């Protein structure tokens, strides 16, 4: 059963929806430093807020990121993912021009695919611990 603090209410529903998302860089290029990951977290937190979702955990390595999000039933996860990837790619390209060499022709930072797994109840603590233990490059 989900923790009581994770249960949210909407106008006509009560819910506890969590998703583990993983985004991989295009061609798995080793792109990110700690500074990049910090900025990605800020950007993705802002996008989540716009969707009335919450970024609960974030971490990553030089070629991928992990997110744990909570979201209301009215949010289509695919639309959230598209916005997270699109906004973060555009802003990172603007703010870190040196990343341009990793953008192959189409000016995309992320691979077209992603992982989305539904999680809930007891596994959230395990998942949170897993994400916290991901290595951040220095």
Automatic annotation (TrEMBL):
GO molecular function, one term: transposase activity
InterPro entries: Transposase_17, Transposase_17_sf
SMART domains: Y1_Tnp
Domain Transposase IS200-like positions: 14-134
GO biological process, one term: DNA transposition
Name listed for the protein in its UniProt record: IS200/IS605 family transposase
